[in-house]
């Protein structure tokens, strides 16, 4: 089993000491990311548990009880690798002011897995969540993801979401689990995406589709995810495609537990 670049108390210390003028990201493996802007810290799809029948290829970099600084936790949908209830319950207990953002269709699943109703913030496509802290301001928008279909219903909305997190002039798009659908790029273009976190492989985007979507929405940076933790490694195919076919597109490939601060330009 591979080891994270940084993990445990050392990783928490690094996050707490990071105060940057642009967003900073850490990859937690699978689809999990930490996004920090100044002293605002969001966790997206943190999954520190083992999944039944899916052995880990890389050790989890954290356990939820260590996370005492979370301002918000975002889960893109109810599947266990994205709404990992044991990890989320621990994070919410250790970060008593934090809340869990979930698709409104996932609210019952969250409560059934032990997450209190009052600690959840349900959302859906076209809705906005605002977060204020120490004169700083962040916004979270949701757009539908297809997994592999949109599966919209009138009563429950979209069960799979992507999140757009905006701090100042930077917008980070986390697609969750998502396959390509016809108007995805058109939905994303108005947000002027700076960093696109895109799942590759399986029922998600192919490497080519992920790269094309980044180009179509004008993303400054393309970052692959959803590989190398419970799934086969797609890193080499993504790097080869970008270098061979899209040399003008900036991209970043993470190792688990690795830190990256978005360049000023």
Plain-language structure description:
The chain is α/β, with parallel strands linked by helices and 265 residues long. The protein has one domain: Metallo-beta-lactamase, Chain A (4-Layer Sandwich), CATH 3.60.15. Helices cover 20% and strands 27% of the residues. Helix 6 links the parallel strand 12 and strand 13.
CATH topology: Metallo-beta-lactamase, Chain A
- Summarize the main sheet: 7 strands, mixed
Rg (CA only) = 17 Å
Q: Are there runs of 5+ residues with pLDDT below 50, and where? A: none
Number of helices: 6
Count the domains: 1
CATH architecture grouping:
4-Layer Sandwich
Principal-axis shape? globular
List keywords for this structure.
seven-stranded mixed β-sheet, 6 helices, Metallo-beta-lactamase, Chain A, globular, 265 residues, alpha/beta
């Amino acid at each position: 089993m591979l080891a994270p670049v940084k993990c445990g108390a050392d990783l928490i210390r690094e996050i707490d000491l990071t105060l940057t003028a642009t967003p900073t990201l850490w990859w937690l493996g699978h689809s999990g990311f930490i996004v920090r802007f100044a002293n605002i810290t969001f966790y997206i799809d943190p999954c520190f548990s083992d999944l039944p029948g899916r052995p880990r290829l890389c050790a989890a970099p954290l356990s939820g009880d260590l996370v005492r600084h979370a301002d918000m936790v975002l889960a893109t949908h109810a599947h266990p690798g994205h709404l990992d209830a044991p990890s989320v319950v621990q994070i919410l207990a250790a970060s008593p002011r934090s809340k869990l953002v979930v698709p409104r269709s996932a609210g019952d699943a969250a409560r059934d897995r032990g997450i209190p109703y009052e600690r959840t913030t349900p959302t859906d496509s076209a809705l906005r969540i605002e977060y204020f802290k120490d004169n700083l301001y962040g916004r979270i928008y949701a757009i539908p993801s297809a997994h592999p279909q949109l599966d919209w219903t009138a009563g429950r909305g979209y069960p799979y979401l992507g999140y757009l997190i905006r701090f100042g002039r930077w917008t980070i798009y986390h697609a969750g689990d998502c396959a390509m659908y016809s108007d995805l790029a058109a939905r994303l273009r108005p947000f002027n995406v700076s960093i696109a976190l895109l799942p590759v492989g399986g029922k998600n985007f192919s490497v080519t589709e992920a790269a094309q979507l980044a180009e179509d929405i004008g993303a400054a940076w393309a970052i692959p995810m959803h590989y190398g933790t419970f799934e086969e490694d797609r890193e080499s195919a993504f790097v080869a495609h970008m270098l061979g076919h899209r040399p003008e597109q900036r991209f970043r490939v993470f190792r688990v537990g690795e830190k990256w601060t978005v360049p000023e330009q």
